[in-house]
Amino acid sequence: MAGDGGGDRLEWLDGLRGLAALAVALFWHYVHFVDPHQDSSLTIASAPGAGLPGIGALYRHGYLAVDLFFLLSGLVFHHVYAARIAAGRIGFGTFLALRLTRLYPAHLAGFGATAVLIALAGGLGVTGPGGAAGFLGNLVLVNDGTAFNHPSWSLTVEMALYGLFFLAMRTGGPALAPPVMILAGIWIFLKTDLFILTGFARGLIGFFLAVGAAEAVRCLRSGARPSPVLLVGLAATLPFCWWIKTFAFDLVALAGIGAIAALAPLRRLAGAAPLRGLGAISLAVYMVHLPIQLVLIWLWQGIGSVPPADRVWFWALYAGSVL
Questions:
Q1: Does the pLDDT at position 1 exceed 70?
Q2: Which of 55, 82, 314 is nearest to 176 (CA)?
């Protein structure tokens, strides 16, 4: 996670982002190789290691890693940008340029590769074309998760969060904005079952929960008094977050990140070179894993078969190709 123009780099968070990318790419989305996505009698229960407690949980609940992305983004943005934006030391144009140059190249590579594969071989049971409107929308990083490189829906949410973060820091600041944004996310989540909107709600809650928690910790460490509005707002969201599994994960993950931040041995472990390297390629892993799945499915269809997704060697082939 680069500091992108200011502040210290939180290297110990890089490995967490890398592990989250692997959880989605190599486990949660492994389901794309099996029924109901392909003409196959296999199920995710037959995937390599699915019967093991830890591995099985990644296959079943790996989608929660996306919520970890939102949490990590909120922490880093508070660390790098909150004070600078609130003080007017960085303009929106500069801020937007920093974010687009970070996200857009990887998005464009994944989108372009997926679009070419769909044009050559069709949707292959995993994803498909979205017509001219879908193509143009994806081209400008607006993806509702229904076509082309659908993992980029979370980048669409991230870009919306970045704009709201800038506006929130310029108006309410880190002490007042998080409760408002979290409550807005709760309201959206309760009012819709549309995938992209529930995803946006997940982003609002996770991102600004992290921003609010980071601001409270900053106040405590500096000896300043945390805003009562911030503390009451965060406390008011806890029952809801614990009630919904996705947001209960946010709370547990945030507590785990806090433990790593507080304990030097854990920080050193999380910031070890292999994990930092994994963090450096995390966005690429997230953006290219679906095109690679399409290639493997296309190759096996070419020989009149389906991917042997229940074999360890096939999982290793896929994982190695992604990495």
A1: no
A2: 82
